[in-house]
Amino acid sequence: MGKLDNKVAIITGAAQGMGAMHARKFAEEGAKVVVTDINETAGKALVEEIGENAVFMKLDVSKSANWEEVIALTEEKFGPVTVLVNNAGVGIFKTLDQLTEADFRLTFEIDELGVFLGMKTVVSSMKKAGIGSIVNISSVDGLVSAPTAIAYSASKHAVTGMTKGAAAELGQFNIRVNSVHPGIIETPMAEQGDVYEYIKQLEKDIPLRRTAKPEEVSNLVIYLASDDSSYSTGSQFVVDGGMISDL
Hints:
This is Glucose 1-dehydrogenase. Keywords: Oxidoreductase. Its EC number is 1.1.1.47. Belongs to the short-chain dehydrogenases/reductases (SDR) family. The chain is an alpha/beta fold and 247 residues long. It has a single domain (8-236), classed as NAD(P)-binding Rossmann-like Domain (Rossmann fold, 3-Layer(aba) Sandwich), CATH 3.40.50. 45% of the residues lie in helices and 15% in strands. Strand 5 (132-137), helix 5 and strand 6 form a beta-alpha-beta unit. Helix 1 (17-28) packs across helix 7 (214-225) and helix 4 runs parallel beside helix 5. The radius of gyration is 17 Å and the shape is globular. It starts with 7 loop residues before the first strand and ends in an 8-residue tail after the last strand. The mean pLDDT is 93.
């Protein structure tokens, strides 16, 4: 038996990176997985890899009508949604004087508005199921912040606050809401040039002296999506190797 048997999960930003790992691991644990992203090519390729327990649906998380369509199609294909992983995100890191209004608005629309719309739209489906778990992917920058992270941190702090508010409101319907706060994760982007060198410097200040593998985040997300975490809601789960433990 898998930890997510009989679960129907929508994962946003799932065509690549951490989202793709979440999708693979969810399917391995028995979930029916709806892979959503704006990248159709990568999303469809991932679904081909996963097999019959996954489908791809194109989703712009900042569009409420698109969300409604995805929920309806998911119910038609697999039944009511029981898990939502709000993973889609964008990071724009610039100093305050270089950060543009367009940068800030784009970050807001994907990282904050997208999470709000996902939670708002999925609730009716979870009520039909009689159970639900919403996992919002925030960041350590949703608990602290850093230079050049003003737009990103603003949106991720908002995710932290929305998670708490939604948990307080939705608990009566047996719907749990938690946030996950990754630190530095090994991704293809993190292995390139100056970024790689910068991360290697940061690793020296991480108590575990290394970055996380994507599956280490996925394992936590699976726990929160599963019934193993049935009494956890409104909480922040940090997966950062102790990076912010002394702050």
